[in-house]
Design brief:
This protein is mostly helical. The protein has 6 helices and no strands.
Length: 123
């Protein structure tokens, strides 16, 4: 994953509902709204250390969920496979247009493209 903020945002998207309401709020302010610990502390009416501790506990809980369930890793794997499949469909389409000129291959490619689109919408 590219950097801790991206990693945390993905984990939050997948597992954020497992956090307490307060953890979700503080985590969102820190990672998604990009507020400093001091700004969040002032907003929440708690100490900066309290904000930091809550965010650290939330990070730990999110990472534990990922270790147990692996949904983010599976999502990334699915995205990589879909991208590679998309490239292969494009290559086969070009081959068909240049050399094969097969209506049957064109129909198969069309169905494959539709399935890829469906896969991406469901992910």
């Amino acid at each position: 994953m590219k950097g801790k903020p991206l990693e945390m945002s993905l984990l939050f998207d997948f597992y954020g509902e497992t956090l307490t309401e307060k953890q979700r709020e503080l985590f969102d302010l820190y990672y998604n709204e990009d507020l400093s610990l001091a700004e969040i502390a002032e907003h929440a009416g708690i100490t900066r250390q309290g904000v930091r501790d809550s965010i650290k506990r939330a990070e730990h809980a999110l990472r534990e969920m990922e270790e147990k369930l692996g949904l983010v890793a599976r999502y990334g794997g699915t995205e990589r496979c879909a991208e590679e499949l998309s490239q292969q469909v494009a290559a086969l389409s070009a081959l068909n247009a240049d050399k094969l000129h097969s209506r049957e291959a064109e129909d198969i490619l069309s169905r494959m493209a539709a399935l890829l689109e469906q896969l991406r919408q469901e992910a």
